[in-house]
Amino acid sequence: MPELALLRERLLDIGDVIVAFSGGADSAFLAWVANDTLGAERVLAATAVSPSLAGDELDDCRSLAEEWGLQFVEVSTDEAENEAYQANDGDRCYWCKSSLMDALTPVADASGAVVALGVNLDDLGDHRPGQRAAAERGAVFPLVDAGFTKADVREWSQRLGLRTWDKPAAACLASRVPYGTTVTVAVLGRIERAERALHAMGFRELRVRHYEDTARLEVPVDDLDRVLASRREVVAAVRAAGYAYVTLDLEGLRSGNLNAALDLS
Q1: CA distance linking residue 64 with residue 41, whole number of Å
Q2: 114-116 and 17-20 as β-strands: parallel, antiparallel, unpaired?
């Protein structure tokens, strides 16, 4: 496991940073360490606000920033208005990160800071065109540079007492929409309503995959029985969000599994 000192050294080399702050385990860990290493006056945690960010996630970003004494700003991004993003092909994430960089680059340039993303080594092995978009625009990946995997991030976060150490991966709401299906604000809102209702029922980790009138629920395999035991309530909650049909994926939760539909050869 890499030493925390390696990450601190890398951050000192970079200097002032704007951390793209989604509130997930990776970006939260990076923001906390940057703040602790460089000082609050040299670190800005910036959360991109758009229809693809669940409201509960935005609320948690605000709470974390207050708890940890982070300089915090919310920036509006307009990827949902981009036809290339709406088309939802294999490069959808490229346009999302491009929109983020459009919003953050002027702020960074004005303060002489560098945009930093919480990408870890494990992310490099998946289909992540957004990383390419960010790198093309000058963003840096300190966790990668210091050799941190997702497991390293979680272990160090736990050692440091950060409550995000075991926070389930969330990803943006658009990641629930199969490639080729148009991403709209209405679709993202339906997904958010369904997931919020299921979270309120105690399902901490889940995905509502959107197939027009059908919602395909993914939960960890250990939670399958619990979904079935609450079948009536689950169906009612998801239908109330706007779906006509509710199905349960018996393979369980698989983060990023919609990428299997892409030809990445």
Answers
A1: 17
A2: parallel
Tell whether the model's pLDDT for residue 265 goes beyond 50. no
Do the Cβ atoms of 219 and 262 come closer than 8 Å?
no
What is the distance, to the nearest Å, from the Cα of residue 118 to the centroid of all Cα atoms in its chain?
10
Helix (H) or strand (E) holding 208: strand 207-211
CA–CA separation, 16 vs 38, rounded Å?
Answer: 8
Average pLDDT over residues 125-145: 89
**pLDDT, tens digit, 9 for 90 and up, residues 110-123:** 999 999 999 999 98
- Mean pLDDT of all residues in 18-40: 97
What pLDDT score does 211 carry? 97
| One-letter identity of residue 80 | A
Q: How far apart are CA 187 and CA 175, in angstroms?
A: 12
Alpha carbon distance 116, 141 (integer Å): 6
Q: Between residues 171 and 183, which one has the greater pLDDT? A: 183
Q: What is the largest CA-CA distance in the chain?
A: 55
How many angstroms separate the Cα of 219 from the Cα of each of 66, 86, 116, 204, 206? 31, 26, 31, 9, 5
Q: Which residues contact 141 (CB under 8 A, 6 or more apart)?
A: 116, 117, 119, 131, 135
